[in-house]
Amino acid sequence: MKIAYFDCFSGISGDMCLGAFIDAGVSLRQLKKELKKIPVSGYALTSKKVQRSNFSSTKVDVTINKKIRNEKYAGRKWSDIEKIINNSTLQNNIKETGLKIFRRIFKAESKIHGKNIEQIHLHELGAVDCIIDIFGTLICLDILGIERIFSSPLNLGNGSIETEHGIIPVPSPAALEILQKIPVYSKGIPFELTTPTGAAIIKELSSGFGGIPEMEIETIGSGAGNRDFKSWPNVLRIFIGNKPISEIYKNESIIVIETNIDDMNPQIYEYVIERLFEEGAIDVFLTQIIMKKGRPGVKITVLCCENNLNKLVDILFRETTTIGIRYYKTERKILKREIKEINSTFGRIKVKISGNQNHIIRSMPEYDDCKRLAKKNKVPLINLINNYIKLNKN
After folding, report:
1. What rounded mean pLDDT belongs to the chain?
2. Alpha-carbon span 223 to 17, nearest angstrom
3. CA pair distance 139, 98, nearest whole angstrom
4. Tell me: the pLDDT tens digits for 317-343?
5. Is residue 247 exposed (0-12), middle (13-18) or buried (19+ Cβ within 10 Å)?
6. Same domain assignment for residues 176 and 306
């Protein structure tokens, strides 16, 4: 699996992303060709080698015709952006991801200004330049075949910036709104290091924030920011490489919630389990235990992501007789899973495939599909499942 790590020690912006990818080997000519699939005009895309605090990097500029910027593209609404992208001939996955990134920006602006999302126009963010930054980044990822992205915590910078609405603090309200619930810090130069566009790009694309993941680095790209600070390299570094081939398992942090119960009608457990799954539990299971004074009891164990913890705890307190719950964070290794629909002897059936890009560890038909086909074909369920297993062994 090819992955990329964004080293945002000097923040991130859309043009820095483009610069880093061009520096990493993406052809500017190929990028321009792909961007022509978007029905916008009146801009020029250029790149050049520059120095940032004595570090060599690539600066990409989106230059927009002044007349067009002031007249035709004075402001774009969400519906305008949506129409432009849907009318493009870009790949569907690039369209969908790009619109998600744009929607993050519009939602942040709408919350800040207290307006409906359709009332918001992009001003400082621009219109054409923002489209080129966002979709240019996605096109570069596609050209390089990058499947997953990880990022360092983001350096926001500090100080203040002058905008159409006057002087505002750094980080800007839009960037701050977008960056909620991800790790950030402020260090170094009194300047806006992370822009709303850069924030929206990395928030949407990154699978995780932290140190460099286990990877075999093949290429490093360095994208330059607009300013050259003497004592601070204003660059975004992107490390591109592969997950080690031997790594079959995915590491994941989860929360384990537990509670012991010895005074509840056992008929209620089914309903509780159903409610827990509805609210995002990864797994729920019951364990028979012996509690104090030799009383038989049941331990409910729930596995979940951290952001679902409070909802699931609330269900346990409301729907069971427990008066105390314990929880802790742990790590687990899981196989990558995907669901595919295939033709079988008995009809179309969904199959869960587990493994990585190089190894399929196992594949099993989905139980509900097997049950449906067993009834339809009037064959024993066990025969249908065994027939699938036998065919796939061969």
Report:
1. 88
2. 6
3. 10
4. 999 999 999 999 999 888 777 788 887
5. middle
6. no
**Whether residue 78 sits in one domain with residue 57:** yes
CATH number, domain at 307?
3.30.70.1380
- Number of neighbouring beta carbons within 10 Å of residue 302: 28
Main-chain dihedrals φ then ψ at residue 351, nearest 5 degrees: -130, 130
Domain range for 205 is 2-242
Q: Is the pTM of this model over 0.90?
A: no
Contact 203, 153 (CB under 8 A): no
